[in-house]
Amino acid sequence: MKTYSTAASLRAAINTEKRSGKTIAFVPTMGNLHEGHLRLVQHAKQHADIVVVSIFVNPLQFGANEDLSNYPRTLAADKEKLFAEGAQYLFLPHASEIYPEGMDSHTKISVPELSDNHCGASRPGHFTGVATIVAKLFNIVQPDTAVFGEKDFQQLSVIRKMVSDLCMPINIIGVATARAQDGLALSSRNGYLNTEQRSIAPTLHRVLQETREAIACGYDSYSNLEQHAKISLNKAGLKSDYFTICDARTLRPITGDTEEVVILAAAKLGTTRLIDNVTLNVNPSADWGMLAAN
Ligand code: PAF
């Protein structure tokens, strides 16, 4: 695995690969890699000849009171995992190259409508930070394909919209959430949980699944379901931030045109914020019976 820390050196290497006819798949990350990230690399390998992974803890997507300085940095272990998984290129840019004149004056990409609700409401500016760094990394790497986890469902929606709106010739692939045996979605933030919190954390996925089952059975009083779910989470010791049943395409309330439902949830355990989601395919002209895999 070759490691590059400047955009020019990475681009030169990628251009050589492209000239010899190779296709490029890209997996952007913030490091602290776990099985979920490695699955993204595995999917990337299935879609292209060369897999490029980036590790950059992007300050622009962190709020002032968030965990940027404490964000786990585990570069040596990350490199070993990527090497073992067969990634060919690792990009480790410096903040001084990404934001040479600081973040305030840097061009920003904002994706309206999808960015302001759910996680965007609790984390103002977060998705502008994500869209901006992802667009910048896309311009540096110029991949044919880019791979993201479906755990960050709203992030994936924002990126798909940005790519479509800005006519970026990149195929975006979403990969199903990797979970622990008890259902907890794998996340770098799980490492912050103490033993008691770790035993409570799977409740988030359990409540999401129960809600999905209720909808699949035809229960359509969504605000009641949301209320009930929040109460269940709070009883278990999770402080619900949001729990929303919405249209998977618009991330807005369900309408008669909704074909896929997503139930998005975020909750805090102590100071650790967990997010998760489940989806449900619905066919408005037939019945509501088809459960999606995630
Ligand atoms: O999902 C993440 O790890 C980050 O938001 C991303 C996409 C790498 C952008 O910094």
Automatic annotation (TrEMBL):
Family assignment from sequence similarity: Belongs to the pantothenate synthetase family.
Protein name as annotated: Pantothenate synthetase
Gene: panC
UniProt keywords, alphabetically: ATP-binding, Cytoplasm, Ligase, Nucleotide-binding, Pantothenate biosynthesis
Binding site for ATP: 30-37, 149-152, 178, 186-189
Function: Catalyzes the condensation of pantoate with beta-alanine in an ATP-dependent reaction via a pantoyl-adenylate intermediate.
GO molecular function, one term: pantoate-beta-alanine ligase activity
Pathway: Cofactor biosynthesis; (R)-pantothenate biosynthesis; (R)-pantothenate from (R)-pantoate and beta-alanine: step 1/1
